[in-house]
Amino acid sequence: MKISLLGSSGRLGSLMLREFLSKKIKVRALVRSVDKFKRIFPNFFANQDLEVLQGDALNLPDLEKLIDGCDAVVSCLGHRGKNPRFMQRDVFTLLSEILEIRGPKRLISITGSGVFLPGDSVTLFDKLMLLPIKLLDPERVEDGKEHVRVLLKSKLDWTVIRTPVHTNFGNKHTVSDNLNGELNLFVNRRAIINFVLEVLYNNTYINKAPVIRSKISF
Q1: Residue 9: exposed, middle, or buried by beta-carbon count in 10 A (0-12, 13-18, 19+)?
Q2: Which tens digit of pLDDT belongs to each residue from 64-80?
Q3: N or C terminus: which one in the chain shows less Cβ crowding within 10 Å?
C-alpha cells in the first residue's frame, strides 16, 4: 500500500507518518520545506519507504505529483493562523477535481467534532463543549464544515473522521457513526491513527463521518 499524506509535519501527522512507516506502508508526503522537515524529523529520511515532496497543497501540479501512483490519500491538515481562511475547503476542492479523474478514489480526512451532519444528535453539552472553539477560532470550525460539503458533492470514496481535542493520554475510546451526545472531551492521537489504519485496511466507513472520542465514565 502507498499513501499520499498531507499534514505530515504536525503533531498528529508526524505520529501518523511514523506509524505508517513502522507498518511498512510506503508514504509520499507533501511539505512546504524539505530542509525544515529534515531538520525536525531527521530519522524519517533513513527510511526507503518515505518520499518527501516540497510544494504547496493549494498548488494543483504539486497535488498531482503527490497522488500519482498512490492507493489512498490521508489528510491531517490543520487550521493554523498562517494558513488561508478556508485552507481545508480549498485543498479538498482541488483534490476532488483531480482524484475523480486520475484516482485514487479513496480519501480519509481528520477534522473536528464541531462538524455536524444529518443524523447527529447534538446535545446542549456538545454545544457548550464547542463554544470556546467557536468563539476563539470560528474559522477553524467553518473550514471543517466547508471541506465536508465539498466531499459530500464528490464521487470519491471518502471517510471523514471527526475528533475532539487531541491528547497523548487515555487509551479507551468509542467510535460511532454519528454524534450521539456521549460525554467525550478528547481522544488519544494513537487511537486516531489506529482507527485510520483499520479504515484503510478494511475499506470501511465509505462516505461516512464517524466520531472517535475517548470514553469517560463516572
Answers
A1: middle
A2: 999 999 999 999 997 66
A3: C
